[in-house]
Amino acid sequence: MTTRTSHKNSSPFSAFILHLHPRKIPADTIRFTLSFGLGGMATTLFFILVGSGILQILSYIPNIMSAHQSVVAMYSAGSPAGFVRNIHYWAGNLFVIVALLHLLRVYLTGATDRKRRVNWLIGIALFLLVLFANFTGYLLPWDQLAFWAVTIFTNMIGYVPFIGERLAAILRGGDEVGATTLSTFFAIHVGLIPALMIILLIFHFWLIRKAGGLVRDPDSDARSVASVPHLVSREGAVGLGLAALLFLFAALVDAPLAEIANPGESPNPAKAAWYFLGLQELLLHFHPIFAICIFPALMLASLTLLPYLPGITLSPGVWCGGAQGRISAAAAFFVGLLASFPLTMADDLLIKENGSAPDLVPWITRGLLPLGVILLFHWLAFLILKRRGYARPETVMTLVIFNLGMLCGLTVTGIWFRGEGMALTLPF
Ligand code: HEM
Predict the structure, then answer these.
(1) pLDDT per residue over 241-269, tens digit each?
(2) Is the pTM above the cut of 0.70?
(3) pLDDT tens-digit profile of 149-168?
(4) Confidence category of residue 352, pLDDT binned at 50, 70, 90
(5) 185 Cα–ligand 1 center, Å
(6) Rounded to 5 degrees, what angle do the CA atoms 76, 79, 85 make?
């Protein structure tokens, strides 16, 4: 009753905001260093992408005869369409990074408790949609980069046992990337994915409210503050600040556009989109079933089930469970990142080139055996950390972050250190 009366007295803007946020929230949850505004940044990017996407439809022609030319024409003198394309392109790429960082912050601040588990699952679905949105959008300019990146990725899917070939054919709308692929990707990119994201985001925000707002350290200051203006002004500052920087960047740096797609001439090296280069790198070292199927499935399953595994949720509202956890997380990330380089080089230069690992039974030598070594390493690391007095949640976190470091290392190698024929090379 009280709430209704006060809603009546507030301005339409405040009344609208109060449907999204509770009237009062714990003061600790608006601390910038708790969330770094990452969820707000992801939301801002989503709106920018929808807005710039709608504007792009005005100048883009979704068929293989005209798509490339319509994108080239966006950059003709006096047209604002090129600027809009730049905004859309850079926002899309930033969205992948921001969504990943947001996912990490949620995990590292222990926001994976019972009340937030379902929201974690919604978040994983959103993250996969962010990747899929980027991937489907990548093909639309129909240039060499797009054509070959999508060809490589759909070929990678083909390695999934039993269903891979079928799945790749459905995605391509045939045996090869062509006219049907472009129209299918266009429909998925502008229709299906945004619709699914809107539904999931509404659910995501509702669940945050239902959980009583952001996660909070129970030992922190228990005072409450009004959402308007305290939370809303901070959200506005983060959103507008990010938009301003993005627009400035888009005004200065054009989105890449190569020559028109030529199915008869593959660029060398032919690379997947940057966020899939870690996977492409795995494919160079492991048997395809392990690189494309078993490792990603293990990663996705552990990530999805993380809040459901007993005793591994970190302390609520405290980054990495405390000071010791923060140090071990930072160390694990850099060790994982740095270890990926010598391991990649050793596999490429010593083992493969000298032929000292004969691939008689490749799924054992380049699959089962390395998987066994990796699992053994994790088990030993787990025991060592436990003996050094680490609690279970911090031990698991250290291993998760180590793997993240490795994946970042593989991605960096794929982006900058692979040249002709995917051989290792220096980027300069
Ligand atoms: C499209 C991408 C996403 C958007 C737009 C989005 C938006 C948001 C916003 C605005 C918040 C509140 C503010 C904040 O935490 O910074 C939030 C919280 C949350 N998000 Fe997301 N999110 C996205 C993806 C994800 C992902 C990938 C995950 C994890 C798998 C996730 C899980 C959560 C959880 C559990 C909370 C509650 C955190 C807490 O209680 O402290 N979200 N999200």
Answers:
(1) 999 999 999 999 999 999 999 999 999 99
(2) yes
(3) 999 999 989 989 889 999 99
(4) low
(5) 27
(6) 90
Q: Ligand 1: list residues with CB < 6 Å.
A: 35, 38-40, 42-43, 46, 99, 102-103, 106, 111, 116, 119-120, 123-124, 126-127, 130, 201, 204, 208, 211, 214-215
Distance 369 CA to ligand 1 centre (A): 38
Pairing state between β 224-226 and 24-26: antiparallel
Residue 350: predicted pLDDT: 72
Extract the tokens encoding 164. Answer: 């891979």
- pLDDT greater than 80 at residue 355: no
Which ligand 1 atom is at minimum distance from the Cα of 129? 1
3-state secondary structure of 107: helix
Structural contact between residues 393 and 314, judged by C-beta atoms closer than 8 angstroms: yes
Q: How far is CA 242 from CA 45, 102, 103, 127, 425, in A?
A: 9, 15, 19, 20, 35
Answer yes or no: are the C-beta atoms of 141 and 259 closer than 8 Å. no
Which residues are bridge partners to 26 per DSSP? Answer: 224
pLDDT tens, residue by residue, 18-55:
778 888 999 999 999 999 999 999 999 999 999 999 99
Burial label, 182 (beta-carbon count in 10 A; 0-12, 13-18, 19+)? buried
Cα separation, 251 vs 245, in Å, equals 10
Count Cα atoms within 13 angstroms, Cβ side, for 263. Answer: 7
